[in-house]
Each structure stands twice: as structure tokens, then as C-alpha cells.
Amino acid sequence: MSNDPLLQPYQLKHLTLRNRIIVTAHEPAYPEDGMPKERYRAYTVERAKGGVAMTMTAGSAAVSKDSPPVFNNLLAYKDEIVPWIREMTDAVHEEGAAIMIQLTHLGRRTRWDKGEWLPVVAPSHHREASHRAFPKKIEDWDIERIIKDFADAAERMKAGGMDGVELEAYGHLIDQFNSPLTNDLDGPYGGSLDNRMRFCFDVLKAIRTRVGDDFILGVRYTADECLPGGTGREEGLEISKRLKESGLIDYLNVIRGHIDTDAGLTDVIPIQGMANSPHLDFAGEIRAATKFPTFHAAKIPDVATARHAIASGKVDMVGMTRAHMTDPHIVRKIIEKREDDIRPCVGANYCLDRIYQGGAAYCIHNAATGRELTMPHTIAKADRRKKVVIVGAGPAGLEAARVAGERGHDVVVFEAANDPGGQIRLTAQSERRREMISIIDWRMSQCEKLGVTFHFNTWAETETVQAENPDVVIIATGGMPHTEILSKGNELVVSAWDIISGDVKPGSNVLIFDDAGDHSGLQAAEFLANAGAKVEIMTPDRSFAPEVMAMNLVPYMRSLQKLDVTFTVTYRLESVEKNGNQLVAHVGSDYGGVNKQRTFDQVVINHGTIPLDELYFELKPASSNLGEISHDQLIDGRPQTVWRNADGKFQLFRIGDAVSARNTHAAIYDALRLLKDI
Ligand SMILES: Cc1cc2nc3c(=O)[nH]c(=O)nc-3n(C[C@H](O)[C@H](O)[C@H](O)COP(=O)(O)O)c2cc1C
Ligand code: SF4
């Protein structure tokens, strides 16, 4: 038996957990019709197969109709969920993991125009900034109804074979009662801490009465809201003690912070560039004070920190939630002493931001997560070894090389630059986004183990590629900034990349015209403003940086607002001309009737990239498929069989930004789904 602290079993009441690593509640927004169907099950089971001790399914499964999901959560108030839950729990148990589910009523943290269009309820009229609904002040009959809804939902989950349920009590209805900031009720549910916690205890009692003792019940709650006038540390400790002393629950799952704003949420679930394990010591203090089973998760992305969390006795179970979205097989790799092979979570929060913006969580650099029904986490060997030549060692090229290597092919990569990484190397120029480089470093180390050959500082030409006698050629050459978008003065502007890379010296009065709305515009603004420039970001869009989603925007705003960067929306830069050593920007608007002139000394354009596709077009006539990809075969997960040229000696494919400007996830997905069948 291993003496690794992480691999020691843990006895949680009657439930034996096989090790100390859990996946905490997180709704990846995969439900179909509010049910955990095949996709949901496949995602969950993959983590159980990977060795995790317990997976907390769902996040915020809804117990009532007036708690409608804001993105896509499980509807625990429907009886039809039971058989779906049963299929999932059986499959997870078969893999040796425990499975629980988090239940909630969102209170004001939702919208009235979702689900059944019912009024949003909360213990006050105060609006939550993030979800914007003005709530109805909850009435006695609402309270009675919701307590019963919780008990009904818990009973459904027990009937479905769950090992237990957890209540979400931070930022949601239970916490809205607990916190003095969001509870304006008079007694019996408002005022003193006794009264404010009454709702929580009524819910717990109703559930316990319904499910009995042989069912795990836990609470995930904030023990310090970190907000003036809110639940402070002292009251949080008191809440912790009262929860324990109630005898109603089996563990505490400690959160520190508040989630009513994007910034608050980002402090609770820290993004890249923020400190690792920021609330671990705090969770340890709660455990020390309560001497009660304590769970905790918040940016503990690596095995060493997780091991420390357990070995130091700060927590009993450590959550590695996003880490398991990036690599579902963490525990298996620890057991096999292959920690180096764990794909690292880089804290990009693409997963979280996407549940709001794109409707499903995807990991920025594991395209198989959430696509378990079609994309493999473990790549199968090919029947025949092929020679695969890849041009470009950015995220697309490296993922192609890794997957081709796993397939057992003979892989050669040409890269014009000195180092691998492409655009990610540029991203990592920002201190705050340095973690992104692990996307490259992990692939390089995997490729090394797989025997992939790299030629850096090599500008691959047609002859370079053909000299390798390839069976398959992958063009992953990326793109170059596209700045030629003005009616006049294109030669006077520079690109966001010029600024980020340091190739162009920052001006002192700078306009950034950003209609790509992605990270590069904000990143350039930060470089410029940090160098002392006065910076204005202008966009024709309704809001600035629409591709940089909620949690990703937080660190930028924290930095850019301090640096006095200004934002101008709904205006379009049309042309630029020189006036002495100044630049005159002619500004119009898509809404018409605007013609302004503004003076700057530098104009920066952020307008995506245009593909570097020369080599692709040169190679095309010599290929057997003339560059064509069968979309049907790609989508269905079948090998590519397009045959258009009898003289063609190799198949030719183009992936990532070499096709069109997209993002890191799209580039990696392009590579995985094509190469897994080659
Ligand atoms: C896509 C996604 C959805 C989440 N939804 C919930 C939720 O509904 N309830 C909850 O308590 N936590 C939720 N979380 C937070 C996680 O449980 C966890 O606290 C957070 O990711 C920090 O832990 P980590 O750094 O190990 O990922 C979510 C996280 C992610 C990534
Ligand atoms: S998107 Fe980023 S934060 Fe989310 S799981 Fe993937 S690497 Fe981790």
C-alpha cells in the first residue's frame, strides 16, 4: 500500500472514499432537457475511471421551478430525473468512485425570463449584480414550499443511487438568508444569526427526515464573504460550528469570498496569474476550529499542492476540479508514478466562462473533455505506421504531433521560430498569463517521450516537406496580424502583436482600435499603459472585448482601470493620416452620421489574423486530396478518404489559424479530431 497521503482512504461516516482527491460540484452545462443523459454520464464516468475518490455531480441542480438555470443545470425538481441519475450512479460506482450531487435554490442568482418565467425570490429586494434580477421579497409560503422542494429533490437523488447530497450555500438562496447583506426579513428568518440560519437548518432537517442517516449530507458555504457588512470571519466560524453541532451534516465544504459580481466569483475560483491555493489556510483554520471533516477546492491545480493540503492536515478531502477537466486521469497517473504526464490545468477559465457564453464547458487545451462520446482521452495506436510531417509548432501543430505520436506514427515537425508555442508564446509575455506556456511545455514533453523529431529555425518549403516522403502533411502555420482594414493610412498603424512582442516601442498617446475583441487588444493596452502611455480602446461593438469573457476580464479590469485606460464603444476607426509627428484618426460609426477627428501619436489595430497559407497552397496540387477535408468523416470520427489526384503522394490538411483566425481551443480541437483517425 502506498504511503502517499493523497492515496490514503478516508472514512466519511459509512462511506469509504478510496483516496483524498475529489471533484467538487461544477455544472459543465451538459444536461439535455435538464437531465444527465449520455454525454453527462460519459463525462462523469471518465473521471471515475481516472481514479478520483468522489465526484460531486452537477453544480447547483435546481430544486424548484423558481430557481431556473441561468445556463444549463440539472432539474432536480423533476421526477423523470431519477432513472437518469440511476444510470450515472451505477456507472460511477462500477468504477469504484463515490458520487454525490449538489442541490440548490438560486434565490436571486438567476433571471425571471428563464424557465417558467416565475418571479425570482430572495430574502430582500437587493439585486445581484451578475444576474441582474430584482427579486421579490420571499414570503412564508415560498419558504415552506422551497424547504419541501429541497427534501423532495434529496429523496429523488437517494432513489437514484447517489451517496449523498450537498447544499450550495454561498451566493445562493441559503446564503442569501445567512448573510446580513442580503437578508432584510424580520423574524423568524431575519435579524439575528439564529434567525438567518433558520432556513438552512429547516432545509437540512427536512432533508435528513426524508433520507435518513445512511446518506451523506454536506454544506458548501462561505465562512467569510470578504465584504463589508457581510458574513465576516468570526461569524463564518460561528456558522461552521453551528453546522457541525446541528448533527445534521457529515462534512463542511469551505468557501471563502462572495460570488455576486464577476470579480468576487474570480476570487473564489481564481484564474491564471492569481495565487495558487489562496484559501487553503483558511479552510485549515475552519477544520482546526471545528475538528470536523472538511473539504475544500480553489486553485489547487497540481499534485504537490494537493498533497500538501492533505499531509498538513488542512483538509480531509482536496478538490481538484478544473484539474480534472484538463486531465481526468490524475489519480491513475499518481498511482502509476507518472505525475509528469498529467496534463496541467493552466487556469484559463475558458471552461467556466464558456458555460455562460457558449453553453457548455470546454477545457482550453483538452478538447476531449465534454466530448467523451466522440473524442478520446487516451489515443489508440494506428494499424499502420505513417510518416506525418507537421509544419508549425503552435498549439495546433503540437497537438497534431502529440496525437500522431500517440498513434505510433513517425512524426517530424518544422518550425520557423527558435521555440515552439506560436501565439501562446506571445500570450505568455504577460506575466499574468505565463501559465499558458504549460500548454506548450506539456506537449513538448509528451512529444519528446513519443520520439517526435523537431526542426526549429527552419522555414519549411515545398521541397523540405516532400524530401521527407510523407504520407500525411499537416499545415499548422498559424496566422499573422491583419491590420490592413482602413480606407487610408494602413501603413501608419501597428498591430497589437507588435506591442506585446516588444517589436514596436510604445507611444505616449495611443488609440487601440479593437474589433477582434479578444485578449490581444487588452494585453496590448496593458503593455502600453504600464509603459506610461495614455490609452484609449475603441470598438464598433456594443461592448468592449466581447471575446474575453466574464472571469477573464476581471484581472484586465483590475489592472487597466488603475492605469486609467478608457473604453469607447460603438465607434469605428475609418482612416488614419499623418500630421507632423502626430496621427489624425478619422472616426465614424456603424450607426451613421458621425465624422470625428482625434489626434494620437500611435494607432494600434487588433483585427485577428490572416492565415499564413502559402505553403499549403503550394503543396495542394501535389497532394492526393488537394487539401480537401471531408467534414462528414471528420464529424463522424472516420478516417479521411478524399481522393482527388491519382498522382498525389500524400494527404494534405490545414488546421488552426492557418485556416482562419479562431482560438487556442479550436486549434487543438482541429488537431485532435483529425489526427486521432490518421
Ligand atoms: C464549469 C464549472 C462550473 C462550476 N459550477 C459550480 C457550481 O454549480 N457549484 C459550486 O459549488 N461550484 C461550482 N464550480 C466551482 C468548483 O466546484 C470549484 O470550487 C472551483 O472550480 C475551484 O476549484 P478548482 O480550482 O479545483 O477548479 C464550478 C466550476 C467550474 C469549472
Ligand atoms: S479551461 Fe483552463 S481553467 Fe478550465 S480546466 Fe482547462 S486549463 Fe483548467
From TrEMBL:
Keyword Repeat annotated: no
GO terms, molecular function: 2,4-dienoyl-CoA reductase (NADPH) activity; FMN binding; iron-sulfur cluster binding; metal ion binding; methyltransferase activity
Gene3D superfamilies, per the entry: Aldolase class I, FAD/NAD(P)-binding domain, NAD(P)-binding Rossmann-like Domain
Top-rank lineage group of the source organism: Bacteria
Cofactor(s) needed for function: [4Fe-4S] cluster; FMN
Pfam families in UniProt: Oxidored_FMN (PF00724), Pyr_redox_2 (PF07992)
Record keywords, A-Z: Flavoprotein, FMN, Iron, Iron-sulfur, Metal-binding, Methyltransferase, Oxidoreductase, Transferase
Enzyme class: oxidoreductase
CDD domains in alphabetical order: OYE_like_3_FMN
GO biological process: fatty acid beta-oxidation, unsaturated, even number, reductase/isomerase pathway; methylation
E.C. numbers: 1.3.1.34
Homology family: In the N-terminal section; belongs to the NADH:flavin oxidoreductase/NADH oxidase family.
PANTHER family: 2,4-DIENOYL-COA REDUCTASE, 2,4-DIENOYL-COA REDUCTASE [(2E)-ENOYL-COA-PRODUCING]
Protein name: N-methylproline demethylase StcD
Top-level taxonomy: Bacteria, Pseudomonadati, Pseudomonadota, Alphaproteobacteria, Hyphomicrobiales
Protein encoded by which gene: stcD
